[in-house]
Specification:
Length: 560
């Protein structure tokens, strides 16, 4: 591998860059940007774009800017800016001193617009928004030219200046690029590039009452920052000729190039900001960082690692056609990463009391348990063992089938890292008939090995010592939606999964977890991966989020 060879599998965007480098098209410059609008938290789709843009900068020793694309004041806020900054940092990317705001370019963009007017390439149109729409034409019919299209440069300059000065009502005039009302591409039919909108901006306040449209602001922001590759999603394909038109009219020297790729769609969730905002505002979830949300902050709180998300983004690649990625693949990446790094621990989700009748009353043994079965370097921890334990309720059956290798009348089972125990009797609630306690005996010779007489005990279950374990709440998450592609449904809220959250409040975690740090992750033996909830967990009451269960449905699909 040479220095120029990207470490990431190549894709059509990297192919374009490689070709440019070969012909020395931009003097070898590679500059990208990630341009989120601060009107929501970023989600896994944005993460894909973050990994792509920052990944290219890293691989080619170029730069990637973070630009808050904040030219439309509606819904934008500093809270969103802060969340975006935190989330991209957490994902592991760094823009050094290149944090930019498109709103810092408002004056420059205004001057660009003045230039367009002066060169006869823009005019102030006084049709109202409905009229502009009506005259735009359709796919099959050309549009009609605005009666204001041939205003003089002087009149346009005067009106545009007065638009800025706040002399006109919202919607009274717009500034339009003078291109071609008969263009087969509707985007090119004299698009609006400035509009009057009296809405305070979270950064510029009431300083501006006119705001540039996305198509005008974005390409020029790219040019102002010296961006070479302006990577965006496919829905902007038709806007590319407009991007090029504006850049060609106003920019000399290096001109940025727009390249479109397919946005990420993920099964069983929605990735439209408008819809995510609706979920948050109508309280279908507990905020942007609800662990069921496809947001970066939701996934972080759930316990996903940045590395797993980066691996996922690298693995799905960059396509030119829209597709729907199976969320099981993301979960697979999370599981692979946690299997490698998460220490093991024991926790009982639905406790059933077990008394070991032949174990000395006040004895406590410290049993050394490996923190990771394949990684001795991760060390061991002591787990207390005593006469009264908890096991999982479903590790006991009163009338088990033959193949059930756990506890039942007459059966034996091994307690993980500890002894073999044998069922002796059970206690039932008189009213409900539910089993409330088991009595067992233990075989003292089985701590570090199989029973001396050679009998086989195939089952292994996890346990905690009742007198030592700490109470915990465990939140089990399932998919937020019950259908594969809720994003396709107008009425998407109808498909929310009513069982996406199950809260278990009587769990018992091994003593060692008492002081586990917020956000730390464990494999609870036999149950899955769990993460200490960074918001709700306290030393009095631990709260765990289930990151993913152990079973890997993706590995099954992929035949691994
Ligand atoms: P929405 O369409 O849901 O409102 P958006 O795409 O407008 O979201 P932006 O903040 O403008 O959100 O997006 C910032 C960048 O992230 C853009 O370059 C956009 O193309 C990219 N992006 C957004 N969603 C996805 C996605 N699902 N997959 C890949 N990239 C995405
Ligand atoms: Mg956008």
């Amino acid at each position: 591998m040479t220095d120029e060879t990207p470490s990431t599998p190549t894709d059509f965007i990297r192919d374009i860059i490689n070709d440019d480098l070969k012909t020395n098209k931009n003097n070898g410059k590679v500059a990208t940007r990630f341009p989120p609008e601060p009107n929501g938290y970023i989600h896994i789709g944005h993460a894909k774009s973050v990994c792509l843009n920052f990944g290219i900068a890293r691989d080619y020793k170029g730069t990637c800017n973070l630009r808050l694309d904040d030219t439309d004041p509606a819904g934008e806020s500093m809270e969103y800016v802060q969340s975006i900054i935190n989330d991209i940092r957490w994902l592991g990317f760094d823009w050094e001193d290149r944090l930019f705001y498109a709103s810092d370019y408002f004056e420059k963009l205004y001057q660009f617009a003045v230039e367009l007017i002066k060169s006869g390439n823009a005019y102030v149109c006084s049709l109202n928004p409905d009229e502009v729409r009506e005259q735009r034409g359709t796919f099959t019919e050309p549009g009609k030219e605005s009666p204001y299209r041939n205003r003089s440069v002087e009149e346009n300059l005067d009106l545009f200046q007065r638009m800025r000065a706040g002399e006109f009502a919202d919607g009274a005039h717009t500034l339009r690029a003078k291109i071609d009302m008969a263009s087969p591409n509707i985007v090119m039919r004299d698009p609006v590039i400035y509009r009057i909108k009296r809405e305070p901006h979270y950064r510029t306040g009431t300083q501006w009452v006119i705001y540039p449209m996305y198509d005008f602001a974005h390409c020029l922001s790219d040019a102002l920052e010296g961006i070479v590759y302006s990577i965006c999603t496919l829905e902007f394909e038709n806007n590319r000729p407009l991007y090029d038109w504006i850049v060609e009219k106003l920019i000399t020297g290096l001109r940025p190039r727009q390249i479109e790729f397919a946005r990420l769609n993920l099964s069983y969730t929605v990735l439209s900001k408008r819809r995510l905002i609706e979920l948050v505002e109508k309280k279908y979830v507990r905020g942007w960082d609800d662990p069921r949300m496809p947001t970066v902050s939701g996934m972080r709180r759930r316990g996903y690692t940045a590395e797993a998300i980066r691996n996922f983004c690298a693995g799905i690649g960059v396509a030119k056609n829209d597709n729907l990625i199976d969320v099981a693949l993301l979960e697979h990446c999370v599981r692979e990463d946690l299997n490698e790094h998460a220490p093991r621990a024991m926790c009982i989700l639905r406790p059933l009391r077990v008394v070991i009748d032949n174990y000395p009353d006040n004895q406590v043994e410290q049993i050394a348990c490996a923190n990771h079965p394949q990684k001795p370097d991760m060390g061991t921890r002591n787990v207390p063992f005593s006469k009264v334990l908890y096991i999982e309720r479903d590790d006991f059956m009163e009338d088990p089938p033959k193949k059930y290798h756990r506890l039942g009348p007459g059966r034996e089972v091994r307690l993980r890292n500890a002894y073999v125990i044998k069922f002796e009797s059970m206690v039932k609630d008189e009213k409900t008939g539910d089993v409330t306690e088991l009595h067992c005996s233990y075989d003292p010779a089985t701590l570090n090995g199989p029973p001396a007489d050679g009998r086989k005990v195939p089952g292994v279950i996890h346990w905690v010592s009742a007198g030592h374990a700490v109470p915990a709440e465990v939140r089990l998450y399932d998919r937020l939606f019950s259908i594969e592609n809720p994003g396709n449904e107008e009425d998407f809220l109808k498909y929310l999964n009513p069982d996406s959250l199950e809260t278990l409040t009587t769990c018992r975690a091994e003593q060692n977890l008492k002081n586990a740090a917020a956000g730390s992750r464990f494999q609870f033996e036999r149950l899955g991966y769990f993460c200490v909830d960074a918001k709700d967990s306290t030393s009095e009451r631990l709260v765990f989020n289930r990151v993913v269960p152990l079973r890997d449905s993706w590995a099954k699909i992929a035949g691994k």
